[in-house]
Amino acid sequence: MALLDPATLGRLERLQLGTRRRLAGSIGGEHRSPNHGSTLDFADFRPYQPGDDFRRIDHLALARLDRLLIRLYEAEDDLTVRLLIDTSASMAGAVLHQAARAASAIGFTALTRRDRVSVHTFPLDVPAPTFRGRGATAAMFRHLESLEATGVGDFVGAARHLLGRPGPAGLTVLLSDLLTPDWEQGITRLPARGADLVVVHVLAAETLHPPLAGDLELVDQETGQTVAVSMSPATRRDYEALAQSWADDVARRCRSVGAAYVRVLDTDDLEALLVSAWRDAGVLR
Length: 285
Description:
By secondary structure, the protein is of the alpha/beta class. It has helices spanning 6-12, 59-65, 94-112, 137-145, 155-163, 183-189, 205-208, 233-256, 270-274, 277-280; strands at residues 28-47, 69-77, 80-86, 116-122, 130-132, 171-176, 196-203, 214-219, 226-231, 260-265. The longest helix has 24 residues, at 233-256.
């Protein structure tokens, strides 16, 4: 099954990744930069210095102030986008597929805007390939489709590894169910080095609303540990309240560290979310 259909790709072509900070890149792109460049958007003045391009002298300022001032313009840089995808066992099946679809939407939007995209996973057992330019779209999609969910995720270790890599701060996009005890510590770490952070919280619908009843033995997909439960209607209501409270706590914690947050269930219509909730959250614009 293709990750995204042609109609969705067509809509994504008209969008751009949203960033809340001005993040410098390495080549010309389509995002506002903290550096100054040669676009047509005026930014500021500075005093003329020997060697400056005399064509940038502001003659009106010279006539009015009798000072040689250079006009500075906004620069536009590329954006370094790092996709950090949880491929632990709890993401198996439809959850990982939905995460791969969300990652492909973000990655495709970045590539069409000449941004650089790298794909990182945890557990850390897959090399992190880098893609650049629209021509790399097919290769990125193939890589995302090949991801498999297995093992126990070390979120904090993955965050530490990612932050230790060279390069500009850029934009980090985390795609995970965050069903790990260290989720809060990892989210707190990721915005380090001035990076923008987007958290795509991908959950199985049954995580919030389990279709279970009776006496059961539940098995942890990552550790294999089991727990016996008796799922009465009252117990299920209590569980659903706790699960919703936890998911809301994750959203609040993400926003408290300056991260954009979007929640995606494995049963959601992703295409509809891309043009509504994701734009409202500032992920796309």
